[in-house]
Amino acid sequence: MEEIKNSKGRVFVDIPLLFEAQHLNEKYGLEFDEVWLVYVSREKQIARLIKRDKISRGYALEKINSQISVEDKKIMADVIIDNSGSLEETFRQVEEYLKRL
């Protein structure tokens, strides 16, 4: 962890349930300079979850409802990226935020 902290480059870590796992972040001493939230609309999130995990809509809703809401996550995040559009639109947003680093 110290090696990463002392590095000159950028490190991106993909943690889907970062906010829900706050106790683990503290336990392992995880610290982040910025938190980027990539989100989709609730309906798109449900559809993707059903397709990826091959689960029912009801179970997908249970999983989503057990998490912190996207609206609350938006408040906690430093950068917010809307992934509801095309892949190109998402890349454009990421590139814009990367330019400011």
Automatic annotation (TrEMBL):
MF GO annotations: ATP binding; dephospho-CoA kinase activity
Keywords: ATP-binding, Kinase, Nucleotide-binding, Transferase
Gene3D superfamilies: P-loop containing nucleotide triphosphate hydrolases (3.40.50.300)
Record's keyword annotation contains Kinase: yes
Pfam family, one: CoaE
UniProt GO BP: coenzyme A biosynthetic process
CDD domains: DPCK (cd02022)
Keyword Kinase: yes
PANTHER family from the UniProt entry: BIFUNCTIONAL COENZYME A SYNTHASE-RELATED, DEPHOSPHO-COA KINASE-RELATED
Listed name of the protein: Putative dephospho-CoA kinase
Organism: Peptoniphilus harei ACS-146-V-Sch2b
Source species taxonomy: Bacteria, Bacillati, Bacillota, Tissierellia, Tissierellales
